Amino acid sequence: MARISRRGLLKAAVGGAITIRTALMSGEAKRRQKPNILVIITDDMGYCDVGFHGCEDIPTPNIDSLAKNGIRFTNGYVSHPWCAPTRAGLMTGRYQQRFGFENNPRFSFDDEIAGIPENEITLAQLLKEAGYACGIIGKWHLGAHPKFHPIKRGFEEFFGFRGGGHNYFKSRETLDAPMYQLPLERNFDEWIPLKGYLTFVLAEEAVQFIKRHSDKPFFLYLAFNAPHAPLQAPEEYVSKFEHINDKRRRLYAAMMNALDDAVGQVLQNIRDLGLEDDTIIFFLSDNGGPIGDASNGSRNEPLRGGKGGLYEGGIRVPFVIQWISRLPSGKVYEHPVICLDIFSTSLAAANVPFPKDRKIDGVNLLPYLRGERTDMPHEFLFWRIGGGNWMAVRDSRYKLHRRKDGTFELYDLQVDIGEKHNLANGLPEIVNRLNEALNKWNNELIPPIFPPPKKDEAT
């Protein structure tokens, strides 16, 4: 047996230590290449109801911190002015009209049509295949039938509700309840009565999910139903806003303040676990705040319109991204972006290939946000509701509306964010150019595959 000198032993030990350290460093580098991904989406939040958009009567310091430490999109859009279609677009990276998801689905455990078609690929499916722990907490609203269940669409963990909304304080214990009073669901068919204020319950579930998966990359889709109706908040929050005379606005302010605290709880947990530098966070609302008789007390000023319509108040939303170690802080990005970009940006950040068998409409925003590209991510953004009853398209400056009766409205969003001055008659060349792009896009779509809910069904 050959003898090994002391120098040889020392050399081997040092070499082994270097090998181990190299392996650890390689593992850390690999870990950094796959960031955690957190998508926080709120429900029916007004455009100007956050501090970084000038809100003065509702403090939102935790949500504002994302804009302070990240990048705020001044022209950030969703792909539809209703809850569910926007979520379908976000989850697939595709205009949801490509697969007929153009309406909110009616809530029925027996409806095998009203949901994301099974041949559509979700962000969760792709990230799960890449080794991510994938969870959804909160509102699903992408199909109530078991075949549309989030556990069958790439998520490993689910806590929340399949429908479009929920009571904030109570639920029944059986499934023969109305949608807003169903028990909450954990994973698949484990039903749990609601105990506590729902916004805080969802935040605590998010904290526990992050703790469970802090040692590997995770994708968490945190879908709050606040501040969607019903207008309900803990009394200690309502009492903070007694100075607001309008009752709806007062309750809405309380819900928003509680929501901000819930977001703060999740963000603090990420910091406490040392994950902040390694977590990419998106924050947005699913559409603008409802107006008129359906108003929840939100405000979309200076935008025109609100939820359900294609004026800016229905589709332009508070939208930020934070990735402290990889993106600038406190930056404002002016070019138009859309919720579909979350899909593509997340895949690019995780180094996951895009599906090649279908058109992906979302764009990887990272090179634009880092200044590596100075052109626009999108030449055009498009919208369609009611199967074509109302359509819209915008470029870097102009936005064209087209109604089913053939009438046009054209607005210069650089100087008329409130869409007050219709320029269609005076700028026919621009109308024709945008209308041609709209026709080309519309020809790629299919009709809605299911109708909207009836008037007496919640949206």
Task: Describe the fold and architecture.
This protein has two domains: 32-369, Alkaline Phosphatase, subunit A, CATH 3.40.720; 381-442, Arylsulfatase, C-terminal domain. Helix content is 29%, strand content 16%. It has 459 residues and is an alpha/beta fold. The model is unreliable at 1-31 (pLDDT under 50). Helix 3 (83-92) packs parallel to helix 9 (340-349) and helix 5 runs parallel beside helix 7. The chain contains eleven helices and 16 strands. The radius of gyration is 23 Å and the shape is globular. A hairpin with a 3-residue loop joins strand 14 (390-394) and strand 15 (398-403). The chain has a ten-stranded mixed sheet with strand order 7-6-5-4-8-1-9-10-2-11, sandwiched between helices. It has a four-stranded antiparallel sheet with strand order 13-14-15-16, with helices on one face. A two-stranded parallel sheet has the order 3-12. It has helices at residues 6-33, 61-69, 83-92, 123-129, 198-212, 235-238, 247-272, 312-315, 340-349, 366-369, 428-442; strands at residues 36-42, 71-73, 76-77, 133-139, 157-161, 184-186, 190-192, 218-223, 279-285, 319-322, 331-333, 337-338, 381-385, 390-394, 398-403, 408-412.
In short:
The protein is α/β, with parallel strands linked by helices. It has helices spanning 6-33, 61-69, 83-92, 123-129, 198-212, 235-238, 247-272, 312-315, 340-349, 366-369, 428-442, and strands at residues 36-42, 71-73, 76-77, 133-139, 157-161, 184-186, 190-192, 218-223, 279-285, 319-322, 331-333, 337-338, 381-385, 390-394, 398-403, 408-412. The chain has 11 helices and 16 strands.
